[in-house]
Design goal:
Length: 641
């Protein structure tokens, strides 16, 4: 027997309640009060909870009013809705009074006490004893915590809970309104994803509180019975959607994006299946799916934090908190761990308020990071534009100087013609590189390396041409580019690397495969002379090879090194090769029908003769040409094997 000497919380009724399960859902109050057919058993848990069972459940306890002046009591159930519930009071004289009888088709107004949670009024005189029978059936969990309140204590409790609930709703609505303001300003979908997710969460809590039934659809109990499925599914769907939008998983984490989509699709499928499947089972499955959904959102945040922690730090913290709330629900509904409804609701409310704030902070923090990134990008863009302007100015100056030298040195002597010829290909490559850089088709560091080589080569040739014109340098000295004009001595490897960088874009534009194999050895050479020789040979190979590949390699040859260029062009016989060494000798045309000037091999041969370099064909091939230039040296530097 329970002594009613004041308010009794649900925990204080442990050990005082008995239960009876009615799988046929046919027993009446008269049946269960028959002592011979009773079969009631003690409830072994703190709160009556029999899992998800499709049966009518009967509870019984005996109470005695031990107060001196309290007659009006309230049986306060910590549940907002059951598909059916009735409360019967059996007096000492055997009279049966039904104080609560609300079924599946009864609207909110049918409740005897207008309160979001179920409340049964009970009159019990001081000193009177009565049996309380409670019968109910639930489409969800059978958990039913309840306690006893006096009329005055219940009014106080109701006022406090109502104030707390609406304070919570206001705290949830505030970040939602701020997010709507953010959307109005920035027009970014992440704000709408945030708003939809947290409005669904707020609606779910209001439904759990019973407020939705009281204010939103009070005359539609059948929908209220079903509402936890679509509202719960909405949270399961909108949470991964928010994670997808916020983290941009489609671009940054495609595998995680597919997993989030899978959770959303499963939630939609379960919601649709509620039309024809057992809703009790579906409600339990949705509890588990919500845990999976929140876990996946938290995991996606952890993965993103590996590469962009500052941008997602608040996002991760928020979902870890939300994961705790989802775990509490799962432990209660799946593992049977006894957790009071009040504790569960308060924990979920607290976590969701904190999480809503953290999610809002995560959006604000992300936009702050994006703002800093934009500022950095603007600075980099300014630097890039400034660099491009300088490149264009430098190229324009070279083009102008080239035009001037062409006009002044035309027909003056063969060395001048050679210089003008050698300028054509590097200038073309330089234009190509700058155009690709401006069109964002090349990465800046690689393009700049190649352009610096081209600029240095062209500027040196321009300087040589100017020295010849202004200081009357002899044609032989300009052609040979001896020590006076080529003061710097470099390794051959540096020259071949520069030539490779210079001509690689030209070969790629033509669709040719240009392979480069440097040697592990190196020798010192006159760089401009070596570069003019190799550039002319490689330029000819690219010009006359319409498809296929070109092999550019360096091999050890005695104490020196031999630069070899093998192409898949039309080729030359040994006799044709010797003839091509003569000036203005053209053996064949290019595919475009352009003859060229017939100076390439002649220039190579004349430049090579002065320092003693040897230019030869390597083999008499049927298709293609193999040319080698041997650079002798008495000093060899070994850089590798």
């Amino acid at each position: 027997m329970t002594d009613l000497n004041g308010p009794h919380l649900p925990e204080t009724l442990e050990g005082h309640i008995e239960f009876l399960l009615d799988p046929t859902k046919s027993l009446t109050i008269e049946n269960v009060t028959d002592t011979q057919a009773s079969g009631f058993q003690p409830v072994r848990t703190i709160f009556p909870d029999f899992g998800y069972v499709d049966q009518n459940i009967w509870l019984r306890l005996v109470v005695q009013n031990t107060t001196d002046d309290v007659r009006s009591w309230r049986i306060h159930f910590r549940e907002n809705f059951k598909q059916f519930m009735a409360v019967h009071i059996i007096r000492d004289d055997g009279a049966i009074e039904t104080v609560y009888d609300v079924g599946f088709t009864d609207g909110f107004s049918q409740r005897p006490v207008q309160y979001p949670e179920m409340v049964a009024p009970m009159d019990l005189e001081p000193g009177e004893t009565a049996e309380v029978y409670i019968t109910y059936w639930s489409e969800g969990s059978s958990h039913l915590a309840f306690g006893f309140e006096t009329e005055i204590s219940f009014a106080t409790t109701a006022a406090k809970r109502t104030a707390k609930n609406f304070l919570y709703y206001g705290m949830m609505i505030l970040p939602v309104l701020l997010a709507l303001l953010g959307f109005a300003v920035y027009r970014h979908g992440v704000f709408l994803a945030y708003v939809s997710n947290w409005l669904a969460a707020l609606l779910y809590v209001m439904h759990a509180d019973g407020v939705t039934f009281q204010y939103l659809w009070p005359d539609n109990p059948s929908f209220n019975s079903f509402a936890s499925i679509p509202i719960g599914a909405a949270i399961i769907i909108l949470s991964p959607n928010f994670a997808r939008v916020f983290l941009n998983t489609r671009a940054n984490h495609p595998i995680i994006d597919k997993l989030l989509w899978a959770i959303m699709i499963v939630a939609i499928a379960l919601t649709v299946s509620s039309i024809f499947l057992d809703r009790q089972v579906l409600k339990k499955l949705l509890v588990l799916l919500s845990l999976i959904s929140v876990s996946m959102c938290a995991f996606s945040g952890f993965v993103a934090a590996l590469t962009r922690f500052k941008e997602v730090r608040f996002f991760v913290i928020a979902w870890v908190g939300f994961l705790g709330a989802a775990a509490i629900m799962s432990m209660r509904h799946w593992l049977g761990i006894e957790i009071s409804q009040d504790f569960q609701n308060d924990a979920i409310r607290s976590v969701m308020v904190i999480d809503a704030t953290l999610m809002g902070l995560s959006i604000a923090d992300r936009y702050n990071q994006l703002r800093l990134s934009r500022q950095k990008a603007v600075a980099e863009r300014y630097e890039e534009e400034n660099r491009n302007l300088k490149l264009l100015a430098r190229l324009a100056d070279l083009e102008k100087r080239y035009a001037q030298e062409t006009e002044k040195l035309r027909d003056r002597d063969t060395a001048s013609a050679d210089t003008l010829h050698d300028l054509q290909q590097p200038l073309a490559v330089l234009r190509l590189n700058i155009r690709a850089l401006l069109d964002k088709k090349r990465e800046a560091p690689a393009a700049m390396d190649e352009m610096e080589g081209s600029f240095a080569y062209i500027e040196e040739l321009m300087a040589a041409a100017t020295r010849q014109r202004e200081n009357e340098v002899t044609p032989d000295s300009l052609t040979a580019l001896g020590p006076e004009q080529d003061r710097n001595i470099y390794g051959l490897r540096k020259v071949t690397d520069s030539v490779m960088q210079m001509f690689l874009p030209d070969a790629a534009t033509k669709g040719l495969e240009l392979r480069y194999y440097p040697s592990g050895h190196d020798i010192t050479v006159q760089p401009l002379a070596a570069m003019r020789i190799i550039s002319n040979l490689l330029s000819n190979a690219i010009k006359y090879t319409e498809d296929g590949k070109i092999l550019f390699c360096v091999r050890k040859r005695g104490d020196g090194l031999r630069v070899e260029i093998h192409d898949t062009g039309p080729g030359l016989s040994n006799a044709e090769f010797e003839r091509a060494k003569g000036r203005s000798t053209r053996i064949f045309e290019t595919a475009e029908g352009k003859h060229g000037e017939g100076l390439g091999l002649a220039i190579v041969n004349e430049i090579a003769e002065k320092p003693g370099y040897e230019v030869t064909t390597l083999c008499n091939r049927k298709n293609g040409l193999s040319v080698g230039v041997t650079f002798p040296s008495s000093v060899t530097t070994r850089e590798g094997v």
